[in-house]
Specification:
heterodimer; A: about 280 residues; six-stranded mixed sheet; four-stranded antiparallel sheet; 12 strands; globular; B: alpha/beta; ten-stranded mixed sheet; nine-stranded mixed sheet
């Protein structure tokens, strides 16, 4: 009789472990503050390999904070919760280790770095990651071969890599540069923070194609967006609505269409009727 | 021109009457020269005892080495004259040269300040370098001064008189590598650029731990002459550069760039005066600074547009990156406009490393330390963009890298 509960426990443990192994990232009850102000108030989200999740929500809901906290930007205080990434404690890692472990953030506002050209920057990044993984570093020639191929995929010409990082780039060029970095660095989990904002129709298609070509059954994506338009190209698996630092509603692609039509107010009305956690 | 002896005597009297400036004097408010003037110096010649260091050797240049006021390769002058078509002569033996008679102490007045007076009173020697009309030199001419390590601090007062003839073109590098304990070098450089001539002028200062370097430079430009002047200063106890550019001929252009890399408790001070005297001239000036430890940087630049100088275009910029909270900078960009149809701008920024940019690099897998290294390097390297001579560029790139490795090692 005494065996029975312990074997149940074992089964539970095994099932949890299996679930962990199958999941790319498990975000559990994540709370975060900045300057004493609570922004994230208990986010739960699990992403499996190959999945594309979309986070939508009104301004100030905590979308960018969520992306920043996952990528390790300093200045945030994690007050509760945990994040398991590929079975490891993500929150204990420095930003560069997260990147080396395969996490990538496409910035909403990519930073200009005068005096550092794209080539030098991308080569340094690529080699830092290769070194971390125990691969040999690429020399300038090998790197050039890789980069030339990738430039074509995002419709940028060779002169692009000689320019200083994001310095004097148009909005569209900055976003394409983010996607270029993604396909060069080959992350397993990409967090795309409003990669579609500020793009004209052609650039939107180029960026969406870049992401689509990069998708496969091992790679996952969390896409933050305000608009439905990029989702027409990307075919997301899940849509989540973030409100006041919590995911209040999840659904499939049709949820985005509902939002487009009805705005966030109906979600707010619904969520205000929910019992407070 | 008065004879050398008469000039020396007048300058001696000027110095005795006026003394050295203190920080109560405008122009010297941030420049403490007490460590320089409260020191006894040896004025004798020190023949080189060791071969010259090769840190500053350009791969393909006419190299003239100067050591404590003497030369180690005087015999090379004649060879240089033969191959280049230019002339180079010692100043002390050229008192009766017509160029010297006409120009000595006219571009940099002997009594511009105490240090020009000191130089005029005590110069051990100098060089006259003349590029004749229509001569366009393919290789840079490199004057290199290396302070000999002596038992006693030495003071070197040295002068250059450089004339570029009409339609001529030349790259000149003046480098100073201080190694001597408490040595003090005091240069006066007078440059005349005739119509349509073009000069790339580099001043490279690698200060030793405790040495002092002072330069006073005057560049006078005639019609459509162009100068690209580049100052690079790192290390040292005191580095002070005064530069006056006179755009006297129509259509003349100057592009002045400077980079200072300060560390320990060193002071690096750049003062400049750009005078738009004739119409249609263009000046661009940018000085950048990286300062760490308790180092101190000064930029003081005045651009004056004379009443006659219509259609002037003038830009002036100073940018400083402070890497420690004890490093300080004083920036004073100034414009004085006395003509109405001109385009002028100036500005100054001082800041710390952009931590958002550090995070951006980290988010791509680059370590925090490497990210900072890349950002400082990028900030500094921008100033080298317009250098056309690859050999000069390489030396400066290496010097930036060495500075960055040095400050990383000392943990600042």
């Amino acid at each position: 009789m005494g065996d029975y509960p312990s074997s149940t426990l074992l089964m539970c443990k095994q099932s949890i472990r299996k679930q962990n192994q199958e999941s790319m990232i498990i975000i559990n009850n994540l709370h975060a503050k900045i300057d004493g102000k609570s922004i994230l108030n208990g986010i739960n989200l699990t992403v499996k390999p190959g999945e594309l999740h979309v986070i939508m929500g009104p301004n100030g809901a905590g979308k960018s904070t969520f992306a920043n906290v996952l990528s390790g930007k300093p200045g945030y205080e994690i007050t509760e919760g945990s994040v398991q990434y590929l079975g490891k404690d993500l929150l204990a890692m420095s930003p560069e280790v997260r990147a080396c472990e395969g996490l990538f953030l496409s910035f909403q506002y990519p930073i200009a770095i005068p005096g550092v050209n794209n080539m030098y920057f991308l080569k340094a990044a690529m080699n830092a990651i290769r070194k971390y993984r125990g691969d040999s570093e690429l020399d300038a020639m090998d790197f050039l071969k890789v980069i030339r191929e990738k430039l074509k995929e995002v419709n940028l010409d060779d002169s692009f890599i000689k320019r200083p990082v994001n310095e004097g780039f148009s909005g569209g060029e900055k976003k394409r540069n983010e996607i270029l970095q993604m396909i060069v660095l080959q992350p397993t989990l990409s967090i795309l923070d409003e990669t579609d904002s500020g793009l004209d129709i052609d650039a939107l298609r180029t960026v969406a194609e870049g992401i689509n070509n990069f998708r496969n059954s091992d790679r996952s994506f969390i896409l933050i967006t305000h608009y439905q338009r990029m989702l027409d190209y990307l075919k997301p698996d899940f849509i989540h609505i973030l409100l006041d630092g919590k995911i209040v509603k999840s659904g499939d692609k049709s949820l985005a269409l509902d939002l487009e039509e009805r705005g966030y107010s109906w979600v707010k009305d619904q969520s205000s009727q929910l019992p407070k956690a | 021109m008065a004879s050398f002896n008469a000039s020396r005597q007048q300058s001696r009297e000027f110095l005795l009457d006026n003394g050295f400036p203190t920080n109560k004097d405008e122009g010297w408010r941030f420049t403490n020269i007490q460590p320089i003037v409260n020191q006894e110096y040896d004025y004798g010649f020190h023949p080189p005892s060791n071969p010259f260091k090769k840190n500053l050797l350009l791969s393909d240049a006419y190299q003239i080495n100067i050591n404590s006021g003497g030369y180690n390769n005087l015999d090379q002058f004649s060879e240089f004259t033969l191959t280049s078509g230019c002339t180079i002569e010692r100043l002390v033996s050229s008192e009766n040269n017509s160029t010297v008679k006409a120009l000595f102490s006219t571009i940099v007045p002997a009594h511009q300040n105490a240090f020009t007076a000191l130089n005029t009173a005590l110069f051990q020697d100098g060089l006259i370098f003349i590029v004749p009309d229509n001569i366009r030199l393919d290789k840079p001419v490199h004057f290199h001064l290396e302070n000999e390590i002596a038992n006693h601090p030495t003071n070197i007062n040295f002068r250059f008189l450089i004339i570029l003839g009409k339609n001529s073109k030349c790259t000149i590098v003046l480098s100073n590598e201080g190694v001597g304990e408490s040595s003090f070098s005091n240069f006066v450089t007078e440059i005349k650029l005739s119509d349509n001539s073009q000069l790339d002028y580099h001043v490279i200062q690698f200060g030793g731990e405790n040495d002092h370097q002072i330069t006073n430079t005057g560049i006078s430009l005639e019609d459509n002459a162009r100068v690209h002047a580049q100052y690079f200063s790192t290390g040292g106890k005191t580095i002070r550069n005064d530069l006056t550019v006179n755009l006297s001929g129509q259509g003349a252009e100057c592009d002045i760039r400077g980079l200072i890399l300060g560390k320990n408790n060193g002071l690096i001070d750049n003062h400049s005066l750009i005078n738009h005297i004739a119409p249609n001239c263009t000046s661009n000036e940018i000085f950048k600074g990286v300062l760490t430890d308790t180092s101190h940087g000064v930029f003081d630049g005045l651009v004056t547009v004379f009443p006659n100088a219509q259609l002037t275009s003038a830009n002036q910029k100073n940018q400083t990156l402070l890497l420690s909270k004890d490093a300080t900078t004083n920036s004073n960009p100034r414009l004085q406009i006395n003509a109405d149809n001109v385009k002028c701008s100036h500005g100054s920024t001082t800041g710390e490393l952009d931590m958002d940019a550090v995070f951006y690099l980290q988010s791509r897998g680059i370590s925090e330390e490497m990210a900072k290294f890349m950002l400082i390097q990028g900030f500094a390297l921008e100033i080298l963009d317009s250098i056309s001579n690859e050999s000069v560029k390489k030396i400066l790139q290496q010097a930036i890298e060495k500075y960055l490795i040095d400050i990383k090692r000392t943990g600042s």
